[in-house]
From TrEMBL, chain A:
Keywords: Nucleus. InterPro entries: INTS14 (IPR039841), IntS14_b-barrel (IPR045814), IntS14_C (IPR046471). GO terms for biological process: snRNA 3'-end processing. GO terms for cellular component: integrator complex. PANTHER family: INTEGRATOR COMPLEX SUBUNIT 14, PTHR13532. This is DgyrCDS13835. The keyword Nucleus applies. Residues 199-329 form the Integrator complex subunit 14 beta-barrel domain. It is found in: Nucleus.
UniProtKB/TrEMBL annotation, chain B:
It is found in: Cytoplasm; Nucleus. One of its GO terms (biological process) is regulation of mitotic cell cycle. This is DgyrCDS10539. The keyword Cell inner membrane does not apply. InterPro entries: Cell_cycle_regulator_Mat89Bb. Keywords: Cell cycle, Cell division, Cytoplasm, Mitosis, Nucleus. One of its GO terms (cellular component) is cytoplasm. It comes from Dimorphilus gyrociliatus. Belongs to the Integrator subunit 13 family. The keyword Nucleus applies.
Amino acid sequence: MPIIIVINDFPEVEDESEYEQLCAGVRLGIEQILTFATKKSNKLEYIAVITGKDSNAHVLSHLTRDYGSIRENLDRLTLPEKIDWREIISCINELIFEEWMMDGKTFVFCLVGERPTKLSKSRKRPATPEADFYFKFEFESHIQIMIMAEDGNMTKRYYEKVLAGNNQKGSIECVNWQNNDTISKKFTSSISLLSPPHIVTLLCGKISCQVQLYPPVKPFFGIVKHEQVNKRIGSKLKIYGFISLNDLASPPFFSKHFLIPTGSRTEDAPKKEDDRGNVPNVTVLLHGSLKVRQMAAVVQLAPNWFGLICSCSDSKKKSNLILYVLEAGSEPVTWLGDFTSMMISNELSDNNPFLSEKKSPFPIKTDERPSYNQPTISWIKSSGVQADIQKVVRFAKKLPEKENLFYKEVNRVKKAALSYGFTSLILGLSDILEREMTSNDSLSSSAKDHLSRTVAALRSPAACNVDFIISSK
Amino acid sequence: MSSNLLHKTVFILDHGESTLQKCGEKVDFDGVFKHRAAKNSNISPLPPIEKTLWSCNVESVVEYCRIAYDVLPYYYLIRVLTCDDTCHVLNDWNEKEQNTTFLLNGLAKVSVPRENQDANLEEGVRKAMELISQPSPLQLNMLEKGMKIDNTGRVIIFSSSLTQDRIDHLEDVMSNLLGEKNRSSISPSKIRINHIDFEFVSVRPVNEKMGGIKERSDVLSKDLNRTIVCTESGQKLAQVVVQRCIAHYDLGITSVTGIPMKEEQNAASSTNYDVELLHSRDAHSKYCTETRPSFDLPGSEVVGLKWVPPKSSSQIADVQPSRVAYRVTPVDVNSRPSSCLTNFILSGRSVLLEHTHSKQYPNFFLAAHSGVIYIHSTCKCPDIPGISEGAGGRLTDYRIHDFGEFMMGSRLVPESEQTGLKKSLEYMDRCLRYWPLTQSESLLAHQSINQYINPLQALLSKANLTPDVNANCFRLITQLFQLESSNELIPQGVVAKGKREEQIKQFWCQFEKMLRCYSSISENHKSLLDKFLSVKGNCLQEHEYPVFEDSDDVDKDVLLLFENKKEVTLWDVYMTQNAPKNKRLKFEGILDNGKVSKLYPSLQEKELNNI
């Protein structure tokens, strides 16, 4: 899960060496977080640092996995005084909102100073309003507050109130910043609250390997087709076939995750960390073949829950496998049909129409025809009525050649007029056709015949009968 | 899609005499005259005609249905009933009757209201409640599975003869019915109603003053909400009703801006048009907060997204999955710009849509699948950890081509049987048993030997080896023996440690390993291994035999436990995983025919003998 480190609310320290020591303490604390992410999380954690600049929230490091750059930025760290927490919270919301960070829980790490019990009179700006804000984010979060103070009990009480807005998901620690051992210990134990890496087994037939899913896959709690569905991902992801990306056609997903091999196969685990790169791993083969063939692997995550594994590249030409978790249920993508009844093409009987590779079986054909994909009559606006009447007249002028189309349109208008209870339009149509018949000299006698019969039919009482079809006979 | 949308809606259309009034809005239907007036002066325009209130009500309800059917998946259902002195139900809950064509056919048969006939709306409300208590196909399915159903619905009355007293009365009727329906016995053809949204649309002719009815929305009880809407008829009514549809189904509007269109087929220049599309608000409510007033639907807000001219390749380059995909429908379905856009997309092209003001948020695109147009959001993957830096990433001789070939043969296609998934998993299990990942990992993976190994593996992957196939397999194995005797078994240029004999031994070891991997599929597979061993003898040591992890999902039961129970304790998990499936061992000597055997049959005899 992404980690956001916030540094705020440090009281003014006049003694320079004391200030330097406090800064060093903060850096040491953050270093514990970076070390933990490197060792325990395969360097997969995205980490950002937010602090203050000229009394405004300032992003010192954007979410990144390049921990070196974070360390560099920290060298320029100054401890901010009072930055409005609400500004910081909206700043965090924005960071997390970019891209896929919302697919997991976020760990918010706040490093704060001791709050003065009495406000000194010399302060020009009023302090942050007392507890009239809450830590409340637009995503799931765990909030860890580290108070860098010898005795932070007063300050602790203040943040306890503030934490209430996050349904108490988080905790508060006081850290004596003058003792490096305490800093290391307290930060290390706090960061270990981070969700452990989500490790599952990827099965491709009998070939298997351990993979880490990042961010961890959240359970699915939702309503699918009016049913409440609760799902948890299993410990085994089973690939049961492949689909070309063109056939998939950008299906909607529930969440997306990196799928990274851990490199530890029980039988032949290499001794040295560095050798991991030289032990064949099925994910690398899968990645290469999926990329070359422009395909995705279809996986079962749990009974009746499915996902897709694709290769994906970023703008820096780095590429890896991504697991797209689909909505729970057997039909998460309407145009792909039922995932439980998909079958491997090699196993089909010989007469199956999809056996040849050229004919794509997707998207699944449906009888459904939306209004924009069929002739639809809409007479809410006058222009709609005019267009349909004009069409009839256009064919009338080309009688007798366009005889079929003419009668088809006449009957279509007549039927719609009956459906909408707009019977005066049937007479209106007859008036227009009559005028056409009498005023248009270029019409042939046969055309005039057709028109006079149609006019008579439209004016007859039978015209109000749905089953009465006007024709040339 | 928000989860609290109502499954069922029933429209009650007042089909009484009062709806025969003219709506007060003229329809100038004579477009032909305007067109020709300049050229031909001896014709005169036909006088405009007027719709009745009935016509306008029908148009609006059909428009509501058109939007709902277009943008929502099939499990949001609508039924329409007309109401004069009797009720006439136009359609059923089943999928076949849930479309506007079916409704329009029904309406054509109902025809215009007759004079001297009042609408018995009370009967209409009774009928509507009866319809809602009938389970839909989806609910029947849930009932069969023994699931709890939340049966909620909306009843919307269109009438021009409403007064406050009548509304109050119908409210009472409704609330009594809710109690009654739910007290009376529940049967498979009649289910409990949990909640009703009751709406009145009081329609009056254009320019007529509002009656004594107040527009309002109240919660009347825990299972009944009531809304009253008063509006003029004509075009205004259609707008109001579409806005109700937007509120009911939580829809939003995207305005696709700046679509270049030519005025005539071969025109040199083009004019830019905007097209407004309706869809679930979830498609971009998170990203798009800046809105402006709608052009097609006064009173609504739209999010503007800029049309990006499609490149010559006319495809969205990246066919990755997308974060959202929602159905769309044009606000004005028959306008020329709308149909140009929808026809363009239906022809198989995707259209990229860009934010006009922010680069940070994802872009969107429109694409059609099976004749239905969806709005998708694009999705980027920033800062990916490179695969070459991870486990196995430094090797470069993966059998990417061979695995690609395997994938092509393992494409998934739709099947009618539900067993597809199971059979496909079994297929994968059979095929991918011995499959060296890299060229150098195994002598068997070498290209020059592939012509023998690949067909053999394909045959071995079959669930049943018929005598024919078995013979074929052995023929391929024999060919390998022959290659060995002609000294061609180990391909030229193979870099392997040790002497030639060592390599050959290595080859047969790997070959035996492969046969052993497949031998557990069936007896015939096993016999093939035995045949091989009878010729070659054992190459592998026993500890080198391949062992497969049992791939059966041990946690399947635990996962199901989580689905069925709200609170799962560690004890539950333990019991599910470890509880003995059969508590007692079966008695081995049990009789097949179900009869109870007599214990110690000879005991009595012996005892008797001993006396």
